[in-house]
Design a protein that fits this description.
The complex is a heterodimer of chains A (158) and B (163). Chain A is mostly helical and 158 residues long. Chain A contains 7 helices and no strands. Chain A is elongated, with a radius of gyration of 18 Å. With 163 residues, chain B is mainly alpha-helical. The two termini of chain B are 22 Å apart. The mean pLDDT of chain B is 93. Classes of the chains: A mainly alpha (158), B mainly alpha (163). Chains A and B meet through helix 3 and helix 7 of A and helix 3, helix 4 and helix 7 of B.
């Protein structure tokens, strides 16, 4: 079914137009990477603060307030540029184990970040151990998401 | 064939460079490290640049923001440089002859010069409290953002043209 959907999408006028203008994919990938840069740098700062190893002159709640909006603003842009890349080459992503892993990990990290972002600003902030666990999980998940994204190019099903 | 092609040829024939070029795993793995490091470089510099331009003033004074972020930028830059050198070595002649690769290097030199000029001339005029950011510092921030966007774009184009 996914295969049929990919074939249909790749044959649409929109997909064919994007494919024929060879500069669109690298240009959209560039925007995608710039937004990834915003997310990764922000996630690094926030998770290092959760781990208690960087930026400790500020409370975690303040760090969440200053840092997390950049992630929530970048994600819709990442989804949009990602969708353009999927329309351009549907099978490259939709029939790719690296892409599936990336989406699953992304859902997980969003849940963790939403939860911890709320908790640190609530009346009952998480304890030190819990904050450290969330920070380590956040760092590992974002690195795994980036790696899975890069490996989409290498794990294509022909 | 003479300088620098003899040297580039020697570099890509070293056992390490050859191993990266022929392995199915090494190149993508090093490339993943490179993308991770460069995303941290660009994202962290952008936070400082945007602060210079007046965004996120409530996050604290510029010098405090810079002191907190820039050490992470430099560590990431060292990793991006080392991994980039390994990728370059795997096919040195091809990358050296690639226009997008040359453009990327020219832009990196520009980013370095912009940083030196900012620190030599505009940095002192930013007070610890920085109620107003000097014009020179704001220009440096805007230039830095533009140049780093160019570096990412040129880097992406290397992947499409040096195959």
């Amino acid at each position: 079914m996914i295969r049929a959907f990919c074939d249909w999408l790749a044959a649409t006028e929109l997909s064919i137009t994007i494919q024929s203008l060879t500069w669109i994919v690298p240009a959209v990938q560039t925007v995608h990477i710039l937004l990834i840069a915003a997310v990764m740098a922000t996630a690094l700062l926030f998770n290092l603060r959760l781990l208690g190893v960087h930026g400790t002159d500020q409370p975690v709640g303040t760090a969440a307030l200053h840092l997390l909006p950049a992630i929530w603003f970048a994600l819709p842009g990442l989804a949009l540029t990602g969708i353009v890349l999927i329309i351009a080459e549907p099978a490259r992503e939709l029939r790719n184990p690296a892409f599936a892993a990336k989406m699953a990990l992304l859902a997980l990290v969003c849940a963790v970040t939403l939860w911890v972002g709320r908790r640190v600003r609530s009346a009952a902030p998480p304890g030190r151990g819990m904050a450290r666990c969330a920070g380590a999980a956040g760092l590992l998940l974002w690195v795994a998401i980036l790696a899975a994204g890069r490996w989409i190019a290498y794990l294509q099903v022909s | 064939m003479a300088f620098p092609y003899d040297q580039l040829g020697w570099l890509q024939d070293t056992p390490l460079a050859d191993a990266i070029a022929v392995s199915d795993l090494l190149f993508p793995s090093i490339e993943t490290v490179h993308v991770l490091a460069l995303s941290l470089v660009v994202g962290s510099i952008a936070r400082v640049d945007l602060r210079l331009l007046g965004f996120g003033v409530g996050h604290g004074p510029i010098k405090r923001v810079a002191r907190q972020i820039l050490p992470l930028t430099w560590i990431s830059f060292a990793i991006a440089l080392a991994s980039g050198l390994l990728l370059f070595a795997s096919n040195a002649v091809k990358y050296f002859d690639n226009t997008a690769f040359r453009l990327k290097f020219a832009l990196m030199i520009l980013a370095g010069l912009n940083m030196v000029v900012l620190h030599l001339f505009a940095w002192r005029s930013i007070g610890e409290a920085d109620a107003r950011v000097p014009l020179a510092a704001r220009v440096a921030g805007a230039l830095s953002l533009l140049v780093w966007v160019g570096i990412v774009a040129a880097g992406r184009w290397v992947g499409f043209t040096a195959q």
